[in-house]
Amino acid sequence: MRQLVIFERVCLIGHIVSMVFGLVGILLVIPNAELIFEEVLNLSEVGQTAMQWSMAGGGVAYMILGAVGVFLYAVRNLGLARSLYFLIPSLSISLTSELLGTSTGFPFGHYSYLSGLGYKIAGLVPFTIPLSWFYVGIVSYLLGRTGFDVDRKPTLLRHLGAIALGALLLTSWDFVLDPAMSQTSLPFWYWHQPGSFFGMPYQNFAGWFGTGSLFMTVSALLWRNNPINLERSQLNVALIVYLANFGFATVMSLAAGFPIPIILGLFLGVAPAILLWSKAPSKSISAGLESGNQSVMSNVNNVNVVLK
């Protein structure tokens, strides 16, 4: 288990470091590539080629590291079965939505992916895209589910609230990410018919919310007989991953001159995420029950002593 935790931490730290390097590359290195490669670094042709390869693979690396790290975090806190019950629906449903979107325009609108995000499945969707749906999706849902206290008070309304808030956190991340990744001088995808929200159609956000809600609902149904009891400290990784990815998108949007999506994302994503995390119990439910049982047994023993 210790080795698993170490590998998880390495992947998550690598995920965040890769995002930092990605920001430096996209915002500083690529716009000034000729000056940096030839005059500042004085790289040889081989060195320049290696640098270009590392820049090209940066987007792939940070998403793979994020997916692996978050999956290991989920296995450690939820167990393998529940982790797979989220991984498989999130990958399959998000990939289906992305393939439909890039080929028919439903549910996000008409768009196409460019290069820089890895091998494209069916020549349409980079394989890394469903991975990002998974790892941002599961941390969003865990924050929503724990914040709504679903497992201690499993009412239908709380389940629906957790799914809705989880999908909202996921969509709020896209509020900030999408304009920066599609409307700048170095886009990773483009819209065939630019919409009203900084080049994006409003349909895109409905598609995000709907896709996220769908795979979160499937996962919730698969988890129905296996409640999870997470305490606040166990959600630290979930919150950090969410905030780190939001921060990456924020810097990209600021550099592109898009402050309004950031403000929306802060109100609809970051603020609720922190609030939900703060509402999580400081002790797990099972630990609390165990402590309560021990207290009851102690009182019973004291009574027995008095009676004797």
UniProtKB/TrEMBL annotation:
Superkingdom to which the source organism belongs: Bacteria
Chain segments annotated as transmembrane: 12-30, 50-72, 84-101, 121-144, 156-176, 205-223, 235-252, 258-277
Alphabetical list of InterPro entries matching this protein: CruF-like (IPR007354), CruF-like_cyanobact (IPR054684)
Sorted UniProt keywords: Membrane, Transmembrane, Transmembrane helix
Record bears the keyword Aminoacyl-tRNA synthetase: no
A Pfam family matched in the record: Caroten_synth
Protein name (database record): Carotenoid biosynthesis protein
The organism of origin for this protein: Cylindrospermopsis raciborskii C07
Lineage: Bacteria, Bacillati, Cyanobacteriota, Cyanophyceae, Nostocales
